[in-house]
Write a structure and sequence with these properties.
alpha/beta; 7-stranded mixed beta sheet; binds pyridoxal-5'-phosphate; globular; 4-stranded mixed beta sheet
């Protein structure tokens, strides 16, 4: 596959953009190559500027759950655009999107629109702190909740109570308010609440981790967070930015039958436009400005184009719930065929999958948390990624990301993917 134009475009981009990209993982650094510059996308396919066609399993990192160029969404956006791009004043589409979210997710009474998942989690944290009048937040190692200061924190070496910033530029004074625990570790969670439960403002988690590769919650993990937060007067924030409207019509909350105090959204609710949202129980959300003392605002929040796209996608999902069953079948097919092929060629893999989210870890060890995810053979992943790409399969360029299925993937796409996988396993 010739990708010379992308190579040149990347060199040019690097002159004007730090690292040549506007979000780090796009640089393909982990897989030892340069990114493809994309010209267009349609349905399940994505096309680079050299004219190559790929089956897309990134889906813009999650939003394109219905595939690219879905007519009901592009029509909604173009017709909204003709009426003006932004007003900075209320518009009907905001209420419509908010209503669609609250109707789908039972524990969300009201919802505030923002412009990204990062903004959603950052604002939900401030709200949790303002509501509980406590400072400490608990997050889990390997979960990603965007790049705000309080959340770019990793477990420090030594005792679990000492956390450290995972990015330069985050003051140690911020890091000390974030406690990082291992994902799926119920005992560590109980211990933390025993020690400082009355100081914990909230626990935030990905209900199914997707940002260390896909790691499902262990039986009882989410339920224990719910029980402990309730017992100690802390809030439970479920970050559904990736899983919302993906794992079921009511997200992971619906799939696992979990209740949360606050829920954050992004990705699918924007249909490909820059959108995030946070919502939850009315008495908590009433703490948000202008009704309450917790400040949060946005010049472009609830933007009419973004709301038109989001509402169109959510309305489509509401009236086509069969998509969830169909996408589960597609995922089960890929998982089964990938496992068979890897086994046939003697390649040790651990495949984790929940519905349309899946990861192939190159390790024999079951992956249940960040530590076990890190046991994967990333050199082998690198080769796997590049060989798949050469066969026209566009995967996330990191061992620690998910493969996303969309409604647009056809059985022909999946068969072709399985054939490519088998050819790659043969030479890995
Ligand atoms: C992508 C993601 C975010 C951040 O969203 P952005 O729109 O990239 O800021 C937050 N939480 C989770 C779980 C995500 O997957």
């Amino acid at each position: 596959m010739n990708t010379e134009k992308s190579k040149k475009a990347f060199d040019e981009a690097k002159k004007y953009i730090p690292g040549g990209v506007n979000s780090p993982v796009r640089a393909f650094k982990n897989v030892g190559t340069y990114p493809l510059f994309i010209e267009k996308a349609n349905g399940s396919k994505i096309y680079d500027i050299d004219g190559n066609e790929y089956i897309d399993f990134v889906g813009s990192w999650g939003p394109m759950f219905l595939g690219h160029g879905k007519t009901c969404i592009t029509d909604a956006v173009t017709s909204a655009a003709r009426n003006g791009l932004s007003f900075g004043a209320p518009c009907i589409a905001e209420t419509e999107t908010a209503r669609l979210i609250t109707e789908a997710v039972p524990c969300v009474d009201t919802v505030r629109m923002v412009n990204s998942g990062t903004e959603a989690t950052m604002s939900a944290l401030r709200l949790a702190r303002g509501f509980t009048k406590r400072d400490i937040i608990v997050k889990f190692e390997g979960c990603y909740h965007g790049h705000s200061d309080s959340l770019l924190i990793k477990a420090g070496s030594g005792a679990a109570t000492f956390s450290a910033a995972s990015s330069a530029g985050v003051p140690a004074d911020f890091a000390k308010h974030t406690l990082v625990l291992p994902y799926n570790d119920i005992d560590a969670l109980k211990e933390a609440f025993k020690n400082m439960g009355d100081k914990i403002a909230c626990v935030i988690t990905e209900p199914v981790a997707g940002n260390m590769g896909v790691v499902p919650p262990k039986e009882g993990f989410l339920q224990t967070i719910r029980a402990l937060t309730r017992e100690y007067g802390s809030l439970f924030i479920v970050d559904e930015v990736m899983t919302g409207f993906r794992l079921s019509p009511s997200g992971a909350l619906g799939l696992y039958g979990i209740d949360a105090d606050l829920v954050t959204f992004g990705k699918i609710i924007g249909g490909g436009m820059p959108v995030g949202a946070y919502g939850g129980k009315r008495e908590i959300m009433e703490f948000v400005s202008p009704s309450g003392p917790v400040y949060q605002a946005g010049t472009l929040s609830g933007n009419p184009l973004a709301m038109a796209a989001g509402a169109a996608q959510l309305k489509y999902l509401k009236t086509h719930k069969n998509i969830y069953g169909e996408i589960e079948k597609k995922g089960a097919y890929l998982e089964k065929e990938f496992n068979l092929s890897a086994e046939k060629h003697g390649i040790p893999v651990c495949i984790n999958r929940v519905g349309s989210m899946m990861s192939i870890f190159f390790t024999e060890t079951p992956v249940t948390d960040y530590k076990t995810a890190c046991m994967s053979d990333t050199e082998r992943f690198k080769k796997y990624f590049n060989e798949m790409l050469a066969l026209g399969i566009y995967l996330a360029p990191s061992q620690f990301e998910a493969l996303f299925l969309s409604d647009a993937h056809s059985s022909e796409d999946l068969e072709k993917t399985v054939q490519a996988f088998d050819a790659v396993m043969n030479i890995l």
